[in-house]
Amino acid sequence: MKYVLYLAIPLIIILSMASCKNSKPKAEAQDTVAAFQEKYRPQFHFSPAEHWMNDPNGMVYVDGVYHFFYQKYPYDTSWGPMHWGHATSRDLIHWEHQPIALYPDELGFIFSGSAVYDTQNSSEYGTNENPPIIAIYTSHHKDGLEQQSIAYSNDKGRHFEKSYLNPVIKNPGISDFRDPKAFWNPVRRCWSLVLAAQDRVFFYASQDMKNWEKTGEFGPEGNHVKGVWECPDLFPIEYKGKNVWVLVVSMTKASEDDHCKMQYFLGDFDGEKFLCTCPSDEPRWLDEGFDNYAAVTFQNAKDVLLMGWGMNWQYAAQTPTEEYCGQATLARKLSLTEVDGALTLAAAPAGLEKFRHSSYPIENHTTIRTETFGLKVSGKGDAKICLKNSVGQKLKIYVSDTKITVDRTMAGYKEFSEHFMTEKYSISTAARKKDGAWNLELVFDVSILELFAEDGVDAISTVVYPETPYDRVSWKGDLSVELYEIDA
Ligand code: FRU
Known about the structure:
Layout: H1 2-18, E1 51-62, E2 65-73, E3 83-89, E4 96-102, E5 109-117, E6 133-140, E7 146-153, E8 161-162, E9 177-185, E10 190-197, E11 200-206, E12 213-218, E13 228-239, E14 242-254, E15 259-269, E16 274-275, E17 293-297, E18 305-309, E19 324-325, E20 332-339, E21 342-349, H2 353-356, E22 360-362, E23 366-367, E24 372-388, E25 394-399, E26 403-407, E27 427-431, E28 438-445, E29 448-453, E30 458-463, E31 472-485
Parallel strand pairs: 1-19
Antiparallel strand pairs: 1-2, 2-3, 3-4, 5-6, 6-7, 7-8, 9-10, 10-11, 11-12, 13-14, 14-15, 15-16, 17-18, 18-20, 20-21, 22-31, 23-31, 24-25, 24-28, 24-31, 25-26, 26-27, 28-29, 29-30
This protein binds beta-D-fructofuranose.
Beta-D-fructofuranose binds next to strand 1, strand 5, strand 9 and strand 13.
């Protein structure tokens, strides 16, 4: 018996050590996001079961399933050596956790990238009957060297095998060379990708996702703000029977306000590079809020669906969520529209249609019974809309003839970060693009608000940490308001 204990005690110690920090993370398969209900945890926005997340990666739609991979550090709630986490959904609202898809290796951490469903098996990593998913990502070595690598899946995204050819795009001798986003090139009928290279993007083309040739660059001309370019994406949107190409670039410390923001350019793709044919004197931002970054689109989806990281580098690691850190935004369906003769992107929340259809009119000062809801607001002139809780915390939205403002100064707990507490990180403003009567849609999920203004030509995403749920909506101004509950 004594000898059994001598053996058993060290074994118990080893096993319990293995279950903490540096152990393999517990597989998260089968759990849905809504199965976790801690304070502040959003219910229909994706968040990891535990530990850190940042950018969405490798988003691809295959056989009715949206695959969402993401930057993950599986041993702590702060950033660390990056892996690709994985989750799946059939409706973009209910997410199921899946086991980690990619682990760091001798080439480095697994930084951001994309995935394509290779239906023609051009990579020859699958068969025509069972086409592979090919992931392309940045291998970030700890000495800073960034190169691009691929991995393939023959079981629809459950497991990935890295290619022995890695890196498939070697570093050309620069820092900040990352975040490849692959897409189908309809002009040359091959794969292309766009990646961030310091203050510009590079384009590459390939027949097989293995051999890549550089075909062009875009930037920094045409860009009106400073900042390192990250997580680009290039995709077409049909407008009046023609394809307009949209280049999206995430930029940290962009503009005087120092925020993480996403800029977009409209133009054409000649098969080799993007040409900005609709220049603008002002930068065009995809979202004027603090908490939407690194957004890219799903490959192979019918609609143009863009999804981002609902967070900000400035205070991400300090947010008061305990088990996990960070969440995704909703997927947004993008379209093009004209405002005063200028072509503009418009975004609408995807996946919420069935809830939005059951909205009903409400009176001022209505009690809200759920922490997950939407408000459709139409108004004229100046207005103020307020979400309030029982301890006097208020998230305030103002509309005037010239701007829309979201003020989280009094919205909840904010002392966790010296940045979050400042005025600079409290008030987001979008200049109004249209005149006259206006509409807003507010989508609220426990601790994140996504606001879509004037038919989606402006958006503001903001995280808030109300200490008790907002349970009342009130307003001032000439408004009509409808409420829908979101049952996640
Ligand atoms: C953007 C980013 C990417 C990089 C990743 C690392 O948020 O900085 O450029 O690949 O995060 O986690």
